[in-house]
Write a structure and sequence with these properties.
The protein has three helices and nine strands. With about 130 residues, the protein is of the alpha+beta class. The mean pLDDT is about 90. The longest helix has 12 residues. It holds the Pfam family DUF498. InterPro entries: MTH938-like_sf, NDUFAF3/AAMDC.
Length: about 130
């Protein structure tokens, strides 16, 4: 288990720790895939694995509240190891100016933590690892 310390106190959603099978955010443990941005509600992300991800699930993970409020970056945490997503699925997001980074869950947590402390509009979709 690893614990995080955040510098930016204005961020609503902060990782506290992670371990086998869970991710802890705002002192609550999640044992299933979740998605959120720095200030949105944390939602269950209805995805079983990255290999079967759909474009609608990618859009869901962008957490767009208003029609033009696209995140600058979408981080996808794929579990214990990095998995890849078809370029055809991420191209529509790239065409809207949304950067997409796909990485292991641990790397996604670190990346989100570093970038969110800099007041960037980012979203994350993340799978716990077992």
């Amino acid at each position: 288990m690893l614990h995080f310390v955040h510098d930016n106190k204005d961020i609503k959603n902060k990782f506290n720790s992670y371990g086998d099978g869970y991710i802890e955010i705002n002192n609550k443990k999640y044992f299933h895939p979740i998605t959120f941005n720095i200030n949105s509600n944390i939602k269950t992300w209805n995805i079983e694995n990255i290999q079967n991800i759909s474009i609608s699930q990618l859009w869901e993970s962008c957490n767009i509240i208003n029609n033009n409020d696209y995140p600058e970056l979408l981080i996808i945490g794929t579990g214990r190891k990095q998995e890849y997503i078809s370029r055809n699925l991420i191209t529509p997001l790239l065409n809207k100016g949304i950067g997409v980074e796909i990485m292991s869950t641990v790397t996604a947590i670190y990346t989100y933590t570093l970038i969110s402390d800099n007041d960037k509009n980012i979203s994350i979709g993340i799978l716990p690892f077992n």
